[in-house]
Amino acid sequence: MKTSMPKLLVARAMFPDVLAQLSNFFELELNQEDRIFSQSELAERLQGKFGMICTSSAKVDQDLLSKLSGVKIISTIAVGYDNFDLHACTQHGVMATNSPDVLNETTADFAWALMMATARRVTEAEHFLRAGLWTKWSVDFFVGADLHGSCLGILGMGRIGQAIARRASGFGMEVIYHNRSQLSEEKELAAHHARYVDKQTLLRHADHLILALPYSPEVHHIIGAIELAQMKPSATLINIARGGIVDDAALIQALRNGQIAGAGLDVFENEPRFHADFLGLKNVVLTPHIASATERTRRAMVNRAVKNVISAVRGELPPDLLNPEVLEI
Ligand code: DGY
């Protein structure tokens, strides 16, 4: 007699071969039309499930968890897990996992793509050309800022920040950073001799400032009007981290007033909605949260999320467990 399998909610559309692999371990509930579930629908669908594979769009908080019983693991396809209340997960006996590391290099590549596009006004120039406005070449035509020989500032020097810094060697850039704690000498050396500075020095000195820190309530609007006013008028600001780290309304003002030269943004407060005034600004490059979006990396992130749920159902320790305290409960 076939015993019933534990149930897994795959809350977002998934590669068919991955579903085939998961179906060896779980009875699956799918969402191949890739709808974003409301909190009440999520609670309904999670009833009776062993776990869920989700993305940053699923908010796993006290309210949701208090409506559930028997859920053992929530596995997100993302390195960032600000959508999880880890304390609540632990209280409810739920293991929370993420998919770190495999996206570091791809995300660092994209931070550079945004920085270069912003500094050299690539999308602004392309829109100009596409609009049929190109009639002549002039000496001050779309002049931007150099990257080579300039100062790269990085706020948040974790694995992605360090991968961003390493790339600066080919451009002969000075690298400065600010982080919760200073890196070891060895890590600073590997990160193109990155130099630890206080936040104010970072803001004042950087020609290009990249945000690569995780979101938490403590860093909400850590870049606001006061911080933007400290930056150079020629500086660019790049955010590949999370919306909410930057006060978007203050950034719009700073971009309008020429307080900084430009911004490259992959993430926004309340995305996928975003402040409509960004659309009226020429000096901002906007992308829809795609920094880790390459075929190979997204596959690797999914595989990591899958490994976490399979480990859990086998009674093994999920490799990316975020709340190991849950094992003591
Ligand atoms: C991540 O991995 O955190 C990316 O931002 C996708 O959510």
From TrEMBL:
Gene Ontology terms for molecular function: glyoxylate reductase (NADPH) activity; hydroxypyruvate reductase [NAD(P)H] activity; NAD binding
Entry's transmembrane regions: none
Matching Pfam families: 2-Hacid_dh, 2-Hacid_dh_C
Signal peptide: none
Keyword Oxidoreductase: yes
Keywords: NAD, Oxidoreductase
Protein name per the record: D-glycerate dehydrogenase
D-isomer specific 2-hydroxyacid dehydrogenase catalytic domain ranges (all copies): 17-323
PROSITE patterns in alphabetical order: D_2_HYDROXYACID_DH_1 (PS00065)
All copies of domain D-isomer specific 2-hydroxyacid dehydrogenase NAD-binding, residue ranges: 113-291
Family: Belongs to the D-isomer specific 2-hydroxyacid dehydrogenase family.
InterPro entries: D-isomer_2-hydroxyacid_DH (IPR050223), D-isomer_2_OHA_DH_cat_dom (IPR006139), D-isomer_DH_CS1 (IPR029752), D-isomer_DH_NAD-bd (IPR006140), NAD(P)-bd_dom_sf (IPR036291)
GO cellular component, one term: cytosol
